[in-house]
Design a protein that fits this description.
This protein is 59% helix and 10% strand. It is an alpha+beta fold. Strand 3 and strand 4 form a beta hairpin. The N terminus and C terminus are likely disordered.
C-alpha cells in the first residue's frame, strides 16, 4: 500500500536540494574542490551500499541531494567571486540592455572580459549635457571605458536585497562612468559565447518589437502596461502605476509569469488545432511533431524576454506537460513543479534567492495544493450546477490559493498586503487575457494598416479601462495594510500555521453533493 507522500517523490528531492543550497549560501566552507564535493561522494557511496534497507537508502539519498545542493552553491560562490584592481582600468564592453534614463544617470548592463574572465556589470553613466554622446548607445553597442570596477555592494536603495539581487542575476561587478571617461566603439563579441550571442540577438529583436508597439500611437500610460504585460519591459511604467497595481493586488499581471505563459500556450494550441482537419497533419501529430513545435515556440518566447526565472519555470512546466501527455501520464502535478525547480537550481543555484522565482513557485504550489480544497468549500448546493458560479468559484479559488502562499513573502519583502485582491483579480485576469490576445493579433496584422488601426483602438480602450479600474480599487478606503514588519522566523511560523490549517480543512472537507 502506498503512503500518501509517496505520490510526490520529487517534492522530497526538491526540498532536500533547496535546503542544501540554503546551507551552502549561509555557511562558509573551504573553497577547495575536494572539500566541496567530498560530502557528496561519501553520501552517494553510502546510498549505493544500502540497497537492502530501503528506508536507510532513502535517507542517504536525500542526504546526497542535500550535499549536491551544498556543493553546487559553494561552486557557484567560487565562480562568481572576482577580485578587481583597486585602481581604474581600461576595458572594452558590449551593451546587453537598452540604456534607461534615471535623472542625470544612464543605466545599462554590459559584458566584458577582465583577466580572461567573463564579467557582467551594472553600469551607471553620467550624462554629458553638452554633446549628448550617450544617445548613441543602444543594446549591442560597443563601449571603451576607464573606470573602477567593484564587486556588488550594498547601495542606497529602498530594497535592502539589492546586492543579493545583483549576484542572483549574474552580475559580477558594478561601476560608475563619468561623462568624460568613455568612448563609443564597434562591439567586440569575440569573448561572448554562442548562447549569449543568441540571447543578445533576441534582445535586439525585442527592442524592435518595443519600437513597433511604441509606434502604434497608444497613450503613454497604456503603452507602458502593454509592454510590461507582453514583453516584460517595465522601464516605461511610472511610479504611480506601480503603486496603484501594488495596492490593488494586481502587480502579478505586470510581471511575466505562469498566467502569461498559459495564455500564450493556449494560443499556440488553438492555432495548431486549426490544421487538424487535414489527414497529413493528424498523422504527424501522432509522432509528437506538433508538440515539439509548440515547445520550441514557447522556448523562443523565453529567449525573447531574456530568460526570466518565472517564465523559465512556466515553460519548463509546459514542456513536462507535453512530454507526459504523450506518455499518457498525469501532467500537471507537484512532481512536475518539483522537477522544474530542480532543473533551474541545478543550472543556477543562486536562482533560489530570486524573489520572482520564490513568488512563482509558491503560487503554483499553492494553486495545485490548496485550490481544489478551497473550490470544494465554495461549491455550495445552491450554485454548484450554475456555469457562472463554477467559473467564479474557480477564479476565486485560484486567486485565494495564490494569495495565501505569497502573502507572507509580500509582507516580508514589501511591508504591504492588498485587501481587495479577490475583487481585482475577477476583473484584471480576463482583461489581461484579452489584452495579450490583442497584442498577438497586432503583430499578425502588422502588414495591414486597416485591421491594425481597429485593433489598436480596442487595445487602447481595454487598457484604459484596466488602468482606471486598478486606480479606483487602489483609492478605496483600507485598500491595503501598510508598514508590516515581519522577521524571517515569523514568516516561517506563518507558513507552518498555513499548512497546518490546510491539513485540518482538507480532513473535514465535504463534497457539494453531501447533505
Amino acid at each position: 500500500m502506498k503512503r500518501p507522500n509517496d505520490n510526490f517523490p520529487l517534492l522530497k528531492i526538491a526540498v532536500a536540494l533547496l535546503l542544501g543550497v540554503v546551507a551552502g549560501y549561509y555557511i562558509n566552507y573551504p573553497k577547495v574542490p575536494f572539500f566541496i564535493f567530498s560530502p557528496l561522494i561519501i553520501t552517494s557511496l553510502l546510498t549505493c551500499f544500502q540497497h537492502r534497507n530501503p528506508i536507510r537508502q532513502s535517507v542517504f539519498l536525500l542526504l546526497s541531494v542535500f550535499c549536491l545542493g551544498f556543493a553546487l552553491m559553494e561552486k557557484q560562490k567560487l565562480s562568481t567571486h572576482n577580485s578587481f584592481p583597486s585602481t581604474p582600468i581600461t576595458y572594452h564592453a558590449t551593451l546587453l540592455s537598452e540604456p534607461t534614463e534615471r535623472g542625470k544617470i544612464i543605466q545599462f548592463d554590459v559584458t566584458t572580459r577582465i583577466n580572461n574572465q567573463p564579467i557582467k556589470a551594472k553600469v551607471s553613466l553620467l550624462k554629458d549635457t553638452i554633446h549628448h554622446r550617450y544617445k548613441q548607445l543602444h543594446i549591442g553597442s560597443g563601449i571603451c571605458a576607464h573606470t573602477l570596477l567593484q564587486t556588488p555592494e550594498r547601495a542606497a536603495s529602498s530594497f535592502a536585497y539589492l546586492p543579493r539581487w545583483l549576484r542572483v542575476n549574474g552580475y559580477n561587478a558594478q561601476t560608475f562612468i563619468p561623462y568624460n571617461r568613455w568612448v563609443a566603439e564597434s562591439p567586440q563579441i569575440e569573448h561572448i559565447n554562442r548562447f549569449e550571442r543568441a540571447l543578445l540577438s533576441m534582445k535586439i529583436f525585442r527592442e524592435k518589437c518595443i519600437k513597433y508597439l511604441n509606434d502604434l500611437g497608444l497613450s503613454k500610460e497604456n503603452e507602458a502596461i502593454v509592454m510590461a504585460m507582453s514583453l516584460g519591459e517595465k522601464r516605461f511604467l511610472s511610479k504611480t502605476q506601480k503603486e496603484d497595481y501594488s495596492v490593488a493586488g494586481a502587480s502579478h499581471i505586470l510581471a511575466l509569469s505562469g498566467l502569461h505563459i498559459g495564455i500564450l500556450f493556449t494560443v499556440f494550441m488553438a492555432f495548431f488545432k486549426l490544421f487538424r482537419r487535414f489527414a497529413y497533419f493528424r498523422s504527424i501529430e501522432r509522432y509528437g511533431i506538433i508538440s515539439s513545435l509548440i515547445v520550441f515556440s514557447m522556448w523562443g518566447y523565453v529567449f525573447l524576454v531574456g530568460f526570466m526565472p518565472s517564465v523559465v519555470r512556466s515553460t519548463l512546466m509546459i514542456t513536462i506537460y507535453m512530454l507526459t501527455a504523450l506518455l499518457r501520464r498525469n501532467s500537471l502535478s507537484i512532481n512536475s513543479l518539483s522537477f522544474a525547480l530542480c532543473v533551474i537550481i541545478l543550472f543556477n543555484p543562486l536562482a533560489l534567492f530570486d524573489i520572482g522565482l520564490q513568488f512563482s513557485f509558491l503560487a503554483v504550489f499553492s494553486i495545485l495544493t490548496f485550490s481544489p480544497t478551497i473550490e470544494s468549500y465554495l461549491q455550495t448546493r445552491l450554485f454548484h450546477k450554475q456555469t457562472w458560479w463554477k467559473w467564479t468559484s474557480g477564479v476565486v479559488a485560484v486567486s485565494l490559493a495564490a494569495h495565501i502562499a505569497t502573502a507572507p513573502l509580500v509582507a516580508y519583502y514589501f511591508h504591504r498586503l492588498p485587501n481587495y485582491f479577490l475583487l481585482t483579480n475577477l476583473i484584471v485576469v480576463p482583461c489581461a487575457t484579452l489584452l495579450l490576445y490583442l497584442v498577438l493579433l497586432l503583430f499578425l496584422f502588422s502588414p495591414w494598416n486597416t485591421g491594425q488601426r481597429f485593433l489598436v483602438d480596442i487595445l487602447e480602450s481595454l487598457t484604459a479601462f484596466l488602468n482606471d479600474f486598478v486606480a479606483t480599487i487602489s483609492r478605496l478606503p483600507y485598500a491595503s495594510v501598510n508598514d508590516i514588519q515581519l522577521s524571517l522566523p515569523q514568516v516561517i511560523a506563518i507558513y507552518i500555521a498555513i499548512f497546518s490549517l490546510f491539513i485540518v480543512l482538507r480532513y473535514f472537507r465535504r463534497s457539494p453533493d453531501m447533505e
